[in-house]
Amino acid sequence: MNGFFVTGTDTEIGKTEVSSALLIGLADAGFQTVAMKPVASGCVNTKEGLRNSDAMQLQDSASRKAAYCLVNPYAFEPPIAPHLAAEISGVTIDSGPILDAFYQLSKGDHYTVVEGVGGWLVPLNQDYTVENLAQDLLLPVIIVVGLRLGCLNHALLTERAILSSGCKVVGWIGNHMSPEFTMSNENIRTLEREMKSPKLGVFPFLESVNSKVLAQHLNIELLTAYGK
Fold it and tell me: Which is catalytic among the residues 37, 47, 168, 196?
């Protein structure tokens, strides 16, 4: 089973853009891909049911188009932390449906890219976090580092927490959040020196995000060589 779990140093730092670029980059390199966003809040009511724009973007970016119910087993309307959105909706997020969907998606010779929600320690219920989910999925982790003030501390803390949990880290991807981030190159060099995992790519700031363009900034060879 090939795949990656994508987490980030914070919320709203480009996990979906990175995950979409991973799916496209792997497909361009000749691999089949499938996507999953197990839990999503901030969904919109449609005639097909609740739909999340990030989950649909991942679904569209994958070379294998899976059913939405498998891509996003838990969808909530309130745009708040997932455990709170679930509580308001009268639902308890349980790992069972997520793992069932993942096992269905991961069958076959392809890469499964799973995007987490929020950061590494975000609660999904009172006793279960994003960290626990990644542990259950048994996928190596890719860290999305939002390149902005504070990114060094956030990136190093996130990597340390992941490694302490027993999960493996494939590497990190820097994502420019603003064209005005000063000392960008110096911060990237510091991350290259201090992070224990390798740099997999650095995404430029784009006024209009284009996942196919961003995929060109990934080191696909390093990604696909992981675990070989």
Answer: 37
pLDDT per residue as tens digits for the range 13-38: 999 999 999 999 999 999 999 999 99
Instruction: Indicate the length of the chain as a whole number.
Output: 228
> Regarding beta strands 111-115 and 2-8, do their DSSP bridges make them parallel or antiparallel, or are they unpaired?
parallel
Question: From the CB of residue 195, how many other CB atoms can be counted at a distance below 10 Å?
Answer: 20
Q: Where are the beta strands (DSSP E) in the chain?
A: 2-8, 33-36, 39-40, 44-46, 49-51, 74-75, 111-115, 123-125, 128-129, 141-147, 169-176, 199-203
Which CATH number does 2-225 carry?
Answer: 3.40.50.300
Clarify whether 212 is annotated catalytic: no
| Alpha carbons 148 and 151: distance in angstroms, whole number | 6
Question: Tokens at residue 40, please?
Answer: 């999503």
| Alpha carbon distance 214, 144 (integer Å) | 13
170 within 8 A of 197, measured Cβ to Cβ: yes
Strand partners, 175: 146, 203
Single out the residue of 127, 80, 75 nearest to residue 98, CA to CA: 75
Residue type, 76: F
Could you give the C-alpha distances from 72 to 161, 176, 216, 221, in angstroms and in order?
A: 26, 27, 27, 29
Looking at 9-59, which runs of residues are DSSP E strands?
A: 33-36, 39-40, 44-46, 49-51
Per the model's pLDDT, the better-predicted residue between 3 and 207 turns out to be 3
